[in-house]
Amino acid sequence: METIITDANIADIIGGNKSVMIDFWATWCGPCRALAPTVEEIAKEYEGRAVVGKCNVDECSEAPMKYGIRNIPTLLFFKDGQLVDRLVGAVPKSDITAKLNAIL
Predict the structure, then answer these.
(1) Does 3-103 carry CATH code 3.40.50.720?
(2) Per the residue annotation, which of 32, 43, 75, 96 is the catalytic one?
(3) Who has the most CB within 10 Å: 22, 28, 50, 67?
(4) How far apart (Å, rounded) are the C-alpha atoms in residues 99 and 101?
């Protein structure tokens, strides 16, 4: 299951000892809704190996601003607390898992 990311918990989640992928999305965004089932699948597949989270940009303002989120969906990938990669748009599952595998 995806972890809900908020302005209040993002630093703790990124700063943990697991690789992290965060999906920045919004309910009104068609491509975000199209990508949601893929993110959910990946969260189940990578459970215990990586944190897969979702951050609703309408409910959070600090995190999207800090990481320069200009378009959604945007997927950010963190390793050892550092932003190491990003994907923008409704991308194929294989692209997402390739990025996650690279940071595990």
Answers:
(1) no
(2) 32
(3) 22
(4) 6
